[in-house]
Amino acid sequence: MHQHSIDTEIIQLLLEGEFHAPRSWLGFHEELKGKKRREWVVRVWEPSAVEVKIDWEAGPQLGEGEPMQKLHEAGIFEWRGKSRPKLTPYRLHCRFQDGSVLNCFDPYYFQVHFEELDQHLFGEGSHLRLFEKMGAHPQEIDGVRGTRFSVWAPNAKRVSVVGDFNGWNGLKHPMQAIGSSGIWELFLPGIGQGMFYKFEIKGKGGEVFLKSDPFAFASEMRPSTASKVVHLEDYVWQDESWMENRRNQDPLKQPINIYEVHLGSWKRKADQQDRFLSYREATEELIPYAKDMGYTHLELLPLAEHPLDASWGYQVTGYFAPSSRYGSPADFMNFVDQCHHHGLGVIMDWVPGHFPTDAHGLARFDGTPLYEHEDPRKGTHKEWGTLVFNYGRNEVRNFLISNALFWFEYYHLDGIRVDAVASMLYLDYNRKPGEWVPNQDGGRKNLEAVTFLRQLNRVLFEKFPGILSIAEESTSWSGVSHPTYTGGLGFNMKWNMGWMNDTLRYIEKDPIYRKYDHHLMTFSIMYAFSENFVLPISHDEVVHGKRSLLDKMPGDEWQKRANLRLYHAYRMGHPGKKLIFMGGEFGEWREWDENTSLDWHLLETEGHCQLQHFSRELNRLYLELPALYSNDFDWNGFRWIDHIDQDNSVLAFLRMPAESFGSNEHSERSSSSDSPVVFVFNFTPVPRTGYVLGMPEAGAYQKIFDTDDSWFGGSGFNNQSRIPMENHSSHGFSKRVTLDLPPLAALMLQPV
Hints:
The protein is α+β, with helices and mostly antiparallel strands and 752 residues long. It has four domains: 3-109, Immunoglobulin-like, CATH 2.60.40.10; 116-228, Immunoglobulins (Immunoglobulin-like, Sandwich); 257-624, Glycosidases (TIM Barrel); 634-751, Immunoglobulin-like.
């Protein structure tokens, strides 16, 4: 085939927007003319240009350089020379019919950088630093500043970068397909930070559509959906000591008391059209509040970019971009940095279980089911209106694992809470018979998802020791928080949904009926050490008609507060790490509404101030006493004293610290930091005087906390500060004490 016919064919493909390898023809090339003679060729496509000149010295003056021959009226130009010019980036001077001019470097001069090793690793799903290659990366090549774009779209006929810089014209900057990898790439000179862009994709059927960049580091503010070019290397972190300490600590033995926050509704600017707090404003308000209240970690509902506020962040379209609702990537980095400076860890909700069907997102990304399954029985969550990731596809697993690593590396997160793990593990999750496909063994387990989760956790803990990987898993799947080498899923913690459901059912009951459901408060101990549990009272429990935590409590207003204090104390004493959703600490009355701020004005009233004070003091005591956290996942850390007094609705147990915790960096009470703690609960409004309990032998016991204290809004019924031991056996112990149990209250005791 003659060169002319080849050129004609390529030109036609360019004009039709179907040329997958523009770098092979556009840009700088060496061509053979006959057997020995060589020519040097530069081809340029600048739609609508009437004249193009090439300047080898890349001089700044418009109009300099050699004229190029016009090959096609659509704006295709060519230069040919018999001697090789100086091979450096050359400048093009383009003049258009309206008299406007463009002075630019030729994007097709620059070579691709997605090399064979990258392609191989991506294809096998093991490219752990994929975020360094994919997406938009500002950089300088051969002295020319611009941005390199890369995207995966294996079934596309053509992919182009579009934005204001080219009038959103998808024919102007087609990308280069990289071998058989499905990757498309292009370096665009002159494109820098702050510019918005998308990918225009032409599918197999000829349809043309726009997609946001799956690897974009920032996005346009909703409802707009363009991706934004940013450089993440500019922020200078100041948390070296925090990161070093984290690497050398076992989080399972540390105090973990999590404050779960939806950033868009924790607090708003009422005097500024009720707008969100920014990341910077949250740094000034949320961080000192959480620290003052005695929390150890902030857990943020998903902050990855999402189009719909009402999704709370659980329908993600921009997995690598912190939401623009609250500020820039650098702003969020600063937020995390300041959290670490103030001694707070940061956990973020991460959503690898599903994604929305929004046209600009991952759904049918290249015109085909790429990230999702083609079969809706595998690829659709009907109840959520979302799509399921295809975990059996190497490239999809690679996308998700590199995303998790990205948040830890670039944003210094201390943990992730992996959302809806149960929906990933079971092929029949919320599906009727006939609506799901069994696995290769005929079972209901999603074996591909299991493989993904194990790979994810192995990589995370190898790269970032000391972090948290927490599963929101609502079934009895065995070994969720066990290491992968023992057959577990590899998380180091799991939400205890059974404990949450049972205890909330119990505490919502009128106390007169609680004796009939005593088991709801004791059953959890039967399995408390089968996993590394977090005890969650999360956002899901205070929405959709479930009522706020305070409003769940039975009785009049005084009893509601007393019940809530009692429940908080039970939660703090029960083995497991702790989590409470915002507002539960001061007794929010309303159900949570993502569209409005918490009712901070309630703190103008005494009762809510007292609840907040109670929560603060309980949290501080938790930090002071290793018995409450150092042995959360071992029978050696817990012993029942009395779990069968259902007629009086009284419970009592003992918490013991790990042996290694004779002293504690958090403790302000070094004398008692290595002592066990006794918890006694009265779940009725009936005061009980002379209540006898067996106790481990000691000289005497002292009361260290009383939820019925008048400081907290209680009755102040118990005035026992020092409780002597009695030389009588009870409850399997050789000694006993006699207590006055306050109504709807808990006592905490320690040996003197």
